[in-house]
């Protein structure tokens, strides 16, 4: 899954990460030198360097709007400051306990903007973020870079890893037993967490701006069902799937447990091994 909408890349982004240039070349994304370039009007979304932060930018309803991955401020900061194992539904869903003696290892197979991964890492989990979209990998990499420069986040950032990979491929090569298997990682999780993008609703005005831009650029998740069918028989101890509270379950198997929130829920599946 890459770009659904053609984007343009501002030249100032290129010094941040060399892979931006190869990615732009591969997908024939134009490089622009200034934001007044007429080409900007033909490309709904731009990748720009906004005050030293790699950002997606669009001009929506004549208002400037940009999104980036910010692990140290905004909603992420507030949530991290307020989060406890007791009050976070996700912590309960993955089975995190205050008496934990070893860090719970979690694969976040649909990393997105990394918010849930950051929360779990701030509560002491070791998290492997998986993301198949190179665009999101670039934004996450930039967010991690800036967060690692924050002395207050050093310990949390040490518990976060990121891989650019299709989650199904990663999960298929995990080794939970002694059977011969070609492992792609030494990171063997206790939990696989899935948060497929919620389907679009009629109430699009209420969708957060970052998700609106993300949908516009890389499209909807259309293979959540496949990912679930890969994760459930993998042998991992627990699979957790985030869904709209009244949404249908993914896959044919009934959840073993559910953790309910006001607008969403977590379907929990335990290993049948």
Quick summary of this structure?
The protein is α/β, with parallel strands linked by helices and 273 residues long.
Give me the secondary-structure topology.
Layout: E1 7-10, H1 18-26, E2 31-32, H2 39-42, E3 45-50, E4 53-60, E5 63-67, H3 74-82, H4 89-94, E6 105-108, H5 115-122, E7 126-131, H6 134-148, H7 154-157, E8 160-164, H8 167-172, E9 191-194, H9 209-218, H10 224-231, E10 238-244, E11 257-260, E12 264-270
Parallel strand pairs: 1-2, 1-3, 6-7, 6-9, 7-8, 9-10
Antiparallel strand pairs: 3-4, 4-5, 10-12, 11-12
Describe this structure in words.
It is a single chain. This protein has about 270 residues and is of the alpha/beta class. It folds into two domains: about 5-65, no CATH class; about 75-270, Vaccinia Virus protein VP39 (Rossmann fold), CATH 3.40.50. Helix content is about 30%, strand content about 25%. The chain contains ten helices and twelve strands. The strands form two sheets. Strands 8-7-6-9-10-12-11 form a seven-stranded mixed sheet, sandwiched between helices. The longest helix has 15 residues, at about 135-150. The two termini are about 30 Å apart. The mean pLDDT is about 85.
